[in-house]
Design a protein that fits this description.
This protein is mainly beta and 115 residues long. Helices cover 0% and strands 57% of the residues. The chain is built from no helices and 11 strands. A hairpin with a 5-residue loop joins strand 5 and strand 6. The protein is globular.
Length: 115
């Protein structure tokens, strides 16, 4: 069993910063891709950023230059540093861990950016 838990969400003013964390627990040997998704009310869930086991990253265009994804393999943790936050970044942020042929999702953490 693999459990995935996100933390770090909250309420912040536009221009502020937050750092999200996602940690895996349970029987985890190797995590391939670690990703952050978000879903705003009335919208589809979208990929925000992803990082491979080799450290390659990709970002959705709307967050490039503002968000940074990183991982600590020893801690089985992935981070999302979010700077220069905008009201349109408001959403529930979900972590997805790809392990072997399976994907494991967290429960989500709310990020609210006020204008």
């Amino acid at each position: 069993q693999v459990q995935v838990v996100e933390s770090g969400g909250g309420l912040v003013q536009a221009g502020g910063s937050l750092r999200l964390s996602c940690v895996a627990s349970g029987t985890v040997f190797s995590i391939n891709v670690m990703s952050w998704y978000r879903q705003a009310p009335g919208k589809q869930r979208e990929l925000v950023a992803a990082i491979t086991s080799g450290g390659s990253t990709n970002y959705v265009d709307s967050v490039k230059g503002r968000f940074t994804i990183s991982r600590d393999n020893a801690k089985k943790t992935v981070y999302l540093q979010m700077n220069s936050l905008k009201p349109e970044d408001t959403a529930v942020y979900y972590c997805k861990l790809s392990i072997a042929a399976y994907d494991f999702w967290g429960q989500g953490t709310q990020v609210t950016v006020s204008s």
